[in-house]
Write a structure and sequence with these properties.
This protein is α+β, with helices and mostly antiparallel strands and 595 residues long. 27% of the residues lie in helices and 28% in strands.
């Protein structure tokens, strides 16, 4: 089963000098041939072996790379190769995994320790001595595998390569050919135990990658090993700097859910084999960014790589400082046209998430209604006379004995129409109802990318695999704000648009802002064009009405944005214009961080 679905969209074009372009190698064979030449040149110049680290992410097919190098260099180079994956302490790693995941059957406790904590340090020190004592007996020494350029070994190498892939590639590849965890026993694949990846392996590998990229000489995009793109690190940095200075799109990922509809499938022309297009993860730090270099080479890398390289340019200095370089938004499309209701659910405050799961921040959401059909509604807050004890008991009976109950007796719902906007601060019971398409603008940074959605009631319906989805009553009723009832909700969470500024044929409104939510949302309405300025903090733009607009920066960079897509405008852009390319007025939702 495919985990993520995607299409070829969200290309970001950059132009670099031709001499830089020529330095990019495309294909495994080209990389190996160039490597053989580099080793020969190095040995001739230095009169000793060349020491190299092939570090990289989980999922890289090291056997394919090393085998091709052996094949191409036979009779030309003498090689000594070390597999760094043998240097992990399995017992320590298993203990960490158990401690992180045993705290909760659905979630976990984020492990934030360093890679060195799960290595056999004495064995790594011996490896360092062994690498250094070759004394010209071979032409090249290669240590490959995740962690090979760790702080103990890093300075022993002459060249460091980092081989990378997107999470989309990692998870989908593991479905086809199992990818096993670092230091694992090859029994459980990544796609079979994603909770472990998010709470242990992912944080460790991400922190290590961030470290290695400071020292790497080459970056290799390996979403396809045969078609890998190997980029000198200075050229890689230059390419990313160009992207960070212009509006860009993050690549959306789509997946079916039990309540999903098919509106997005039609709008985005998604694969026909998708069971439905219930959710689109439009913006997230774990998604990827597609960069087309000089109209010739497509490089697709994790978005977090770009953010690590230029956090100030993208977020703005104040936002970067406030969030420690983390990207503070997640955007979703919830497609329920012809589908069902979401589970009745609630999210937690930052204090609760830190204490229970070692996460960094609270989780707030908001719903912008993009499209509706008959009977569309949004569940938000409690009914005025809802008995919380009775609500809990009914939900518990449903979970344990599969006895259905009328959730409408306890949860308030509001009929919806396109253009409605609802704020959902942590602790508010809510759910998107059937027959609507929702743009979720969410604030939240978590290692567990699925976020902390605590289910109260899921109507006893089976998930896509036939099982009942997890219910989280203990968490739900601990974080539930019981004072958020009908009257309070209508006064505080469905706000009337407030005019911020206007001119001939255009206006900007504040449509949602609260002191306890760190972001705010505006709506730009115009006939021809409107002028904007990031003023030191990035903007998120979504075209919610109209066909197409053109975003033009003050220095002439352009990006065409189609309905219903989302664009990131980095803080570094400064002044820009949005130009209507279609007929009739358009509406663009703009989200930004409150400072």
């Amino acid at each position: 089963m495919t985990i993520y679905y995607s299409i070829e969209e969200a290309d970001n074009k950059v132009t670099i000098p031709e001499e830089n372009m020529k330095s990019i190698l495309v294909g495994l064979d080209k990389f190996v041939e160039a490597l053989i030449e580099k080793v020969a040149e190095f040995k001739k110049k230095e009169n000793r072996e060349c020491r190299m680290a092939f570090d990289g992410y989980l999922g890289i097919d090291w056997n394919q790379i090393v085998s091709r190098l052996n094949e191409k260099s036979r009779g030309i180079l003498k090689m000594r190769v070390y597999n760094f994956l043998e240097y992990y302490d399995i017992n320590v790693l298993d203990k960490i995994v158990d401690e992180s995941l045993s705290v909760d059957k659905s979630f976990g406790y984020v492990y934030r320790g360093r890679l060195s904590k799960i290595l056999k340090i004495e064995k790594v020190e011996k490896l360092k001595t062994e690498i250094l004592k070759n004394n010209g007996k071979v032409d090249v020494v290669i240590c490959f595998g995740a962690g090979s350029a760790n702080p103990i070994l890093r300075k022993t190498y002459d060249k460091i390569y980092y081989f990378d892939m997107t999470r989309e590639t990692l998870f989908n590849s593991s479905e086809r050919k199992p990818v096993y965890f670092i230091g694992g026993d090859n029994k459980i694949a990544v796609h079979q135990f994603m909770r472990r990846f998010y709470y242990v392996d992912g944080p460790v590998l991400d922190a290590h990658k961030k470290y290695v990229l400071r020292y790497a000489d080459f970056y290799a995009e390996c979403n396809s090993i045969e078609d890998m793109k190997v980029v000198p690190k200075n050229v890689y940095d230059y390419i990313l700097s160009k992207v960070a200075e212009q509006p860009f799109r993050i690549k959306p990922l789509y997946y079916p859910v039990t309540w999903g509809g098919n509106w997005l499938k039609g709008i985005k022309k998604l694969p026909k084999e998708m069971p439905n297009s219930g959710q689109g993860c439009i913006v997230a730090s774990e998604n990827s960014i597609r960069i087309v270099v000089n109209e010739k080479i497509l490089i697709e890398i994790p978005f977090q790589n770009l953010l690590w390289a230029y956090p100030g340019k993208i977020l703005g200095d104040e936002v970067n400082k406030k969030f420690g370089g983390e990207f503070p938004f997640t955007y979703w499309y919830d497609d329920q046209i012809g589908g069902g209701d979401m589970a009745i659910q609630v999210h937690a405050s930052g204090k609760y998430l830190r204490e229970k799961f070692n996460e960094k921040i609270r989780q707030d959401e908001s719903y912008y209604i993009v499209y509706t059909e008959e009977g569309a509604k949004t569940y938000l807050g409690l009914r005025e006379k809802a008995d919380i004890k009775e609500f809990y008991e009914k939900a518990l009976l449903a979970e344990r004995e599969h006895v259905p109950f009328d959730h409408n007796k306890y949860v308030f719902s509001i009929p919806t129409k396109p253009g409605d906007y609802f704020l959902i601060p942590a602790g508010t019971v809510h759910a998107s109802g059937r027959n609507q398409v929702v743009l979720e603008i969410d604030g939240g940074i978590s290692a567990y990318s699925s976020g902390y959605t605590f289910h109260i009631y899921d109507y006893l319906r089976p998930d896509l695999d036939g099982s009942l989805r997890a219910i989280h009553l203990e968490h739900s009723f601990k974080v539930l704000k019981t004072y958020r009832r009908e009257k309070w909700v209508l006064k505080n969470l469905r706000q009337e648009p407030k005019l911020l500024r206007k001119g001939e044929g255009w206006a900007e409104y504040v449509i949602g802002e609260r002191e306890d939510m760190y972001f705010k949302t505006h709506r730009l309405e115009f006939e021809k064009e409107i002028e904007e300025d990031t003023a030191g903090r990035f903007h998120m733009l979504t075209l919610v009405e109209g066909n197409r607009v053109l975003v033009v920066t003050h220095d002439g960079k352009e990006y065409v944005l189609d309905f219903p897509d989302t664009l990131t405008v980095p803080a570094s852009v400064g002044r820009y214009r949005i130009v209507n390319l279609g007929e009739g007025a358009v509406k663009v939702v703009k989200a930004l961080i409150r400072l």
